[in-house]
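About this split. The held-out portion is used to measure sequence recovery: a designer receives only the structure tokens and must propose an amino acid at every position. Recovery is the fraction of positions where the proposal matches the reference. Here is one held-out target exactly as it appears in the evaluation file.
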């Protein structure tokens, strides 16, 4: 009989879309204490993708270590999961994806890089994560939509804006880039799957392959 798998997400990927990839029990973005509650249910695997940062205490390192010590496989990627995996991979937490690798390599360091504000009832994302902005700007530069100087200008402005207010319209309004380029960039960005979503899918696919190999 397949054992319980618990996944904390809802922002990087919706529970409905996640269920199409992996049959698991999906819960809201993780906060402190949620791992301890999950441990009591004796899951085989815990996946951490999204989590809270500021409006509630973030998931603690000790509770994740406690789960690992009890033989539970803990996989992280995408957002909070990527951050915690980069901090705890040497202790057994498994990290997956671009954002995890960026934290692990030191390319990004702050939780601000993945933080967003969202509607707590619908989980609708109301701002854009800096790691997504940087990824999409790099792709836009490769495509010739903006040049490297414009990319750096946009990133500088984005970093100066408090994360709950980071949207493309607010960021670009503070740049000297032409209106035509702004429109082209917003259209381009809207068509690119967020890197946190790509990583969330990678986490689910990894767990699925793990379960299939057991």
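Reference sequence for scoring:
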């Amino acid at each position: 009989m397949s054992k319980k798998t618990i996944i904390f997400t809802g922002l990087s990927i919706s529970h409905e879309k996640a269920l199409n990839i992996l049959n698991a029990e999906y819960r809201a973005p993780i906060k402190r204490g949620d791992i301890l509650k999950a441990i009591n249910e004796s899951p085989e695997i815990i996946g951490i993708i999204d989590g809270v940062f500021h409006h509630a205490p973030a998931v603690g390192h000790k509770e994740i270590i406690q789960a690992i010590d009890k033989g539970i496989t803990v996989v992280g990627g995408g957002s909070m999961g990527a951050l915690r995996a980069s901090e705890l991979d040497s202790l057994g937490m498994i990290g997956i994806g671009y954002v995890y690798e960026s934290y692990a390599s030191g390319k990004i360091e702050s939780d601000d890089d993945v933080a967003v504000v969202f509607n707590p009832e619908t989980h609708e994302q109301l701002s854009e994560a800096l790691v997504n902005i940087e990824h999409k700007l790099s792709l836009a530069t490769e495509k010739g939509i903006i040049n490297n100087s414009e990319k750096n200008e946009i990133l500088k402005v984005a970093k100066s804006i408090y994360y709950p207010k980071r949207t493309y319209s607010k960021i670009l309004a503070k740049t000297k880039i032409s209106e035509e380029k702004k429109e082209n960039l917003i259209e381009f960005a809207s068509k690119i799957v967020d890197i946190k979503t790509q990583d969330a899918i990678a986490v689910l696919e990894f767990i699925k392959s793990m379960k299939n190999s057991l």
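Annotator remark: Strands lie at 5-8, 25-27, 45-48, 73-76, 94-95.
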